[in-house]
Design a protein that fits this description.
Blueprint lengths: L5 E5 L3 H13 L4 E5 L3 H11 L3 E3 L2 H6 L3 E4 L6 H11 L6 E3 L6 H6 L7 E5 L9 E7 L5 H12 L2 E5 L5 H9 L1 H18 L4 H22 L3 H8 L5 H11 L2 H20 L2
Parallel strand pairs: 1-2, 1-4, 2-3, 4-5, 5-6, 7-8
Antiparallel strand pairs: 6-7
Helix pairs in contact: 7-12, 8-9
Length: 270
């Protein structure tokens, strides 16, 4: 169904907009029906994406889609769901990408027995490199899950997790692009300080992360093994690593994922 799929997205901010762009670019959907209170955002996307992106009211999105994705801010989800519930097609999976909003919370605003999926993608959907984790309620059939997966697999990789693991996923993958942005910014700034032109420094920093991540992924090396292969006694790398250890960069990244995960847990407890 993927190529003929009507994808509904309610909320086209950062994640919803990225999914709309990525799914259309990858051919995962024939059209996107989208609703958002920000009419300027809808108009901007419609102008950029063309006729396959069609602004609608939320109820019309729910009634005209094969998969409906709710991508509004977490505290808005309960107010959006009743209108979706009234109009949702029979057998249409409802997907939430709202951080910290549990399946139980979503189901409480819906009629019993509806298929509900929680997904946590990230902005790399725009370049088809998202890491998306998913979990679903018991009403989701294997066929429905494959349909939902087809959308997100078109914009990256998909991982099945238990719902209890979604907080950690949010702290790692959902928030992770911001951490990477900070790392790239710092690496490029250091190179600029030592004489590289800013544009070249940024390009090389991005390629550095892309190449290193691919190396780890394809070889299966532990990150420490990669570190050891680059480091030589009394060389340049150990001098740089010393500064990173003094700055507790590894511990700071650990704490960042932990803090973001705990914030997701707080959102779930509302």
């Amino acid at each position: 169904m993927a190529g003929q799929l009507n994808l509904g997205i309610i909320g086209v901010g950062n994640l919803g907009g990225a999914l709309a762009e990525g799914a259309l670019a990858a051919g995962a959907a024939s059209r996107v029906l989208a609703a958002d209170l920000d009419t300027a955002r809808l108009e901007e996307l419609a102008e950029r994406l063309g006729d396959r992106f069609q602004p609608r009211q939320a109820g019309h999105v729910a009634g005209g889609s094969d998969v409906v994705v709710v991508a509004v801010k977490p505290h808005i989800v309960p107010s959006v769901l009743p209108d979706v519930d009234r109009n949702l097609r029979a057998g249409c999976p409802l997907v939430s990408v709202a951080a910290g909003v549990t399946l139980r919370t979503i189901q409480a605003s819906l009629r019993p027995g509806l298929p509900v999926v929680r997904a946590m993608p990230n902005l790399a959907m725009l370049v088809r490199e998202s890491a998306t984790a998913m979990t679903a309620n018991d009403a989701v059939s294997p066929e429905q899950m494959r349909t939902v997966e087809s959308v997100f697999k078109a914009v990256g990789k998909v991982y099945q997790v238990s719902e209890s693991q979604m907080h950690a996923v949010t702290g790692l993958s959902g928030s992770g692009p911001a951490y990477v942005g900070l790392v790239v910014e710092g690496l490029a700034a250091g190179a600029v300080q030592k004489g590289l032109p800013p544009k070249l420094a940024m390009a090389m920093a991005c390629q550095l992360l892309q190449g290193s991540a691919r190396l780890l992924s394809e070889t299966g090396w532990h990150p420490a093994a990669l570190k050891d292969r680059v480091t030589t006694p009394a060389g340049t790398t150990i001098a740089g690593l010393r500064e990173l250890e003094i700055g507790a960069v590894r511990g700071a990244l650990l704490s960042a994922v932990e803090a973001a995960s705990e914030r997701s847990e707080e959102l779930a407890g509302r």
